[in-house]
Amino acid sequence: MTTEQKNDRGKLVVNDSECKGCGLCVEACPVKCIGISDQLNHFGYKTAQYEGARCTGCGICFMVCPEPGALTVWRLVTHHEVVVA
Amino acid sequence: MSSVSFPEYEVAFGRPDSYYEKYERKNELSHATHYCPGCGHGTAHKMLAEAIDGLAIKDRTVLISPVGCSVFAYYYFDVGNVQAAHGRAPAVATAMKRSHPGSIVISYQGDGDLAAIGMAEIIHAANRGESITVIFINNGIYSMTGGQVAPTTLIGMKSMTTPHGRSVENEGYPLHICELLATLEAPVYIERVGLGDNKQIAQATKAVRKAIDNQVKGLGFSIVEILSPCPTIWKMNAVDSQHWVRDVMEKTFPLGVFCDKTKEAQPHAPHPAAPALTELPKILGIEDEPELEHATKPRKIDIDLHVRVAGFGGQGVLLLGEILAQAGLDAGLHVSWLPSYGPEMRSGTSNCHVRVSSESIDSPLVTLPDVLVAMNEPSLRKFDDSVRPGGWVLYNGDEFPADCYRPDVKVLALPFTKVAHEIGDARAANMVMLGALLEIAEDLPQDAIDQALRQLVKTPKWVELDTRALLRGRELFREKCAVEV
After folding, report:
1. CATH number reported for the structural domain that contains residue B129 in this entry
2. Which residues of B18-41 are buried (b: 16+ CB within 10 A; e: fewer)?
């Protein structure tokens, strides 16, 4: 664990049973941190997937997404200083 | 010793509270909407949900869903919901708002609903300045029905019904609803937005919120037109159809605010409550008037007969009822005859409600028949439970099914079809049953029946056969049921 690593300001969680893989979020994301999965979900859609880094938590993907709960955008709030012996 | 920082995240954007957790429309689809991938409705729904959450009005919001793809909006929004007939959402919204002035009424309509069949409703609601919010989804086509031309279809745009593209000569020009409504004096806020890219979506979100906020402030009629992609019917992928809104649709339907009187508009006082029903005679000045004399012939008959006739199409179910009603009419009584049948000409099920009464008839529906004429077993099973205690069931069959037996109902079960066949034609079974029925409704004079028969049955041969069938029915009833009557 490095102390120097900068945490992303946001992160995206995709609910792959709700996502229909339309790709609007992929197009909309300003930092291009969303891709489309190679795997089919239970309903036969290739869903969106977070690339794992660079999310700024802007929420544009959420507003563009037609499904109510397919995307959840989290934002960084605080850092906890933990003392490790 | 070293210090390590752990990131802590919280949800900034997630499923709005105004949606149900689970949608009860279909078990296998309780997690997602029924919209196609990339549908503009989904995005518009989310704006609406965000606005309802943001203004904290979920508990007093009434959403009027239209006819169209968004007909199921009531499965998704955890608010008050009413589903209106095609195009009538603004009229329903008017009623909701006037009767519940504290509610926030949102009429959500597509372009087929609002700009075609519901054109009158939207214009008049806007012209009255009803304090409602209208969300108008414009995708330039009838999507739910498979892509027919809509009033808003672009010139040259292909549809199922304009396969060579919409032509001005044939289908006229696309209707510009916002511009049209902006010519009225009453509306407070009219804006057209799009779902063509991030910027447009951000603007649309603001507009939807403003339109609802206007109503919360009681300002008056607000409408937001949302140019919305339909990837399925436009035959594009979601991203291309989104860009098509921006690059093509916007040229015909320019975005912008067409009317904004939000700043100067004064909050409306709610409409006064309607007077109580009991006050109406006084208001109309008719409280002292004697009851009107009925214009019909003087009647000596005292009757109030509720009959349900049911059977296969082609058995003469409707004719039986019609003759009964016509006879009542000829005898100077009040009658109603309400047929109910499927589109099949033969072998579908069909039934009719008949009422014959010496008093005026409140409703033509017969929900608790005095007599059920069941011409086949499925009809018996369907309506047996509805017969009023003390009533009659006339059943066409050799044996009355034991599980349909009710101790409080009298039954005459006979193979009427066979009886009719013996008389001359199996098709006269309905008249044999009518004969039996007339023994129950004994107050109906025979001459009225004869007259009705001659009026409704055209050929003399059948009049003769039917008259004999009626007589036979009467005889059979007297033979079998003489004790009970």
Report:
1. 3.40.50.970
2. bbbeebeeeeeeebbbbbbbbbbb
Q: Is the pLDDT of residue B458 over 60?
A: yes
Task: Look at A23 and B239 and tell me if their CB atoms are within 8 Å.
Answer: yes
CB contacts of B30 in chain A (<8 Å) are none
Give one DSSP letter per residue of B272-296, joined into a string. Answer: PPPPPGGGHHHHHT-TTPPPPPP-S
Tokens for B404?
């349909």
Question: Collapsing DSSP states into helix, strand and coil, what is residue B32?
Answer: coil
Q: Does the CB of A32 have a partner CB in chain B at under 8 Å?
A: no
- Interface predicted TM-score of the whole assembly (ipTM), two decimals: 0.89
Chain A residues within 8 A of B204 when measuring between CB atoms: none
Per mean pLDDT, which range of A61-75, B56-70, B336-350 is the poorest?
B336-350
3-state helix, strand, coil in chain B (%, to 5): 40, 20, 40
Instruction: Map residue B374 onto helix, strand or coil.
Output: strand
- Distance (Å, whole) CA B41 – CA B14: 18
Domains defined for chain A, CATH in brackets: 10-75 (3.30.70.3270)
In the predicted model, what is the mean pLDDT of residues B313-330?
Answer: 90
pLDDT digit string, tens, across residues B7-38: 789 999 999 999 999 999 887 788 889 999 99
Whether B13 is in a domain gets the answer no
CB-nearest partner of A77 from B10, B13, B39 = B10
Q: What Rg do the C-alpha atoms of chain B give, in angstroms?
A: 31
- Asked whether B432 and B299 are in contact (CB, 8 A), the reply is no
Could you tell me which chain B residue has the CA closest to the CA of A64? B43
B191 DSSP β-pair partners: B224, B257
Residue B156 CA from chain centroid, whole number: 34
Q: How far apart are the first and last CA of chain A?
A: 14
Is residue B49 within 8 A of residue B42, CB to CB? The reply is: no
- The answer to whether A53 faces chain B, any CB pair under 8 Å, is no
Alpha-carbon gap: A18 to the closest alpha carbon of chain B (Å):
5
Does the beta-carbon distance from A3 to B1 stay under 8 Å? no
Quote the minimal CA–CA distance from B412 to chain A in Å: 56
pLDDT tens string B330-358: 888 999 999 987 665 555 678 899 999 99
pLDDT, tens digit, for every residue of B288-303?
655 544 444 555 678 8
Q: Do A22 and B19 make contact, defined as CB atoms within 8 angstroms?
A: no
Q: How far apart are CA A47 and CA B122, in angstroms?
A: 39
Q: Determine, yes or no, domain membership for B268.
A: no
B319 in the same domain as B246: no
Spell out which residues of chain A touch residue B2, defining contact as CB-CB under 8 Å.
Answer: 3, 83-84
Per-residue pLDDT at A65? 96
SS3 B222: strand
CATH number at residue B366: 3.40.920.10
Distance CA B147, CA B138 (A): 13
Nearest to A68 among B3, B19, B242 (CB): B19
Domain hosting B161: range is: 27-260
Helix (H, G, I), strand (E, B) or coil at B194: strand
